[in-house]
Amino acid sequence: MSHGGVLLTVGGSDPSAGAGIQADIKTFEVMGVYGASVITSVTVQNTVSFIRRYDLPPDLIRSQIRAIMEDMDVRLAKVGMLGGSDVIKLVAEELSGFRVPFILDPVIKSSTGGVLLDTDALETLKTELLPHAYLVTPNIPEAEMLTGIEIRAIEDERAAAIAIKKIGAENVIITGGHLEGADLLLDQDGRFSTIGGELGLIEGDWHGTGCTYTAALAANLATGKSLIDAANAAKRFVVDAMRFAHPVGKGLIPLNHAGRLIRDRDRYLVLEDVKAAVDEVLRHNFVPFLPEVGSNIAVAIPGAATRDDVAAVSGRIVRCGNRAVQVGPVEFGASDHIARVILAMMRFDPAMRACCNVRYSDEIIRACSDIGLEMAEFVREDEPEGERTMDWGVRSVIERLGHVPDVIYDLGGMGKEPMIRITGKEGKDLVSKVVKLIGALES
């Protein structure tokens, strides 16, 4: 497909913004391509149910298409909800007349239960529009309706893809959210490929996965990716949008189309936060605070789930001569000990995302008290069998207090150095406590 230009989406409006035109435009926007739209129908739906639809007059749809085509450089179109036979014929005529390649997402029913394609229009779709499509992306039920083939195994899916290609489409992708989470691609050269995914591993009842997938695929094609690469990237986009989604209504969960951007933003901000925190601490005399195993400063992204969501100093902060030095760069996944402390804190209080470990001494404990830091201790000998020390220790302190204290410490054990852990909401908050502590110890 060609680079640049404008992407056009033709389809229905969803006032809940989880699917249809709204989902397409959101997808185009966050993927860095310009999206224009032609509305074919106004639906009345929310996350719970589909209430009604109002199909726009064909002449109004035609006028919308021509207004865009005569003004903008439309390189690729995505066609979704069309409603009836008249509109299908109209869209086929207009896209052919303007020589615009298009992806057909043959939506027949909405995930909220609405009928989006008239029963007598299915044959029109197959004869008038589908044969001209660069790509057709039905899900399993849609592929069954298009071909009459009952799909229960991969062999059935392949047979359905072949049948759809025989109708005339250049390429076919049967999306497999309804069959083990994988998609099946049959390309214009007759080759089959599997588009992997994790959709089946993410729990939830979703709204708009099909629209979002096809829109992301179109955006990837428009920016120059091959079909197989565009499809794989689109699948990853949908998985990200599901991971970062949260309920906004009482029913199905719309995707968070900006999830990937939010994640990347959060990771960048956390990296910068840790770098600034380390720089600030190293401007002071941090040597008296260094444990034998070294110190670290770590901050997690919001919603962190694993150590790979926690940024820290690779190689830790150690003593070199009479100075404290940063061994390696700030990276995600660089900490285990402090990352586990933070993840345990966040399970109780998601806002507590930062931690620094320092040497245990009676003097430092007194300094913590002098500057008003709340402290709590756990005893390693009390750890139940089968528990991980940091997970259990931090959890036991928080459960006892009902909140996360400023300082969590222990006196060590067999082969384990005593340690003080200073907590905070972010790097800036954490460092303010550490710097006050340094000043208190020096005074």
TrEMBL record:
Listed GO MF terms: ATP binding; hydroxymethylpyrimidine kinase activity; phosphomethylpyrimidine kinase activity
Enzyme Commission numbers on file: 2.7.1.49, 2.7.4.7, 2.-.-.-
Record keywords, A-Z: ATP-binding, Kinase, Nucleotide-binding, Transferase
Protein name: Bifunctional hydroxymethylpyrimidine kinase/phosphomethylpyrimidine kinase
Keyword Acetylation: no
Domain Pyridoxamine kinase/Phosphomethylpyrimidine kinase span(s) in chain numbering: 14-256
Thiamine-phosphate synthase ThiN domain ranges (all copies): 274-436
GO CC terms in record: cytosol
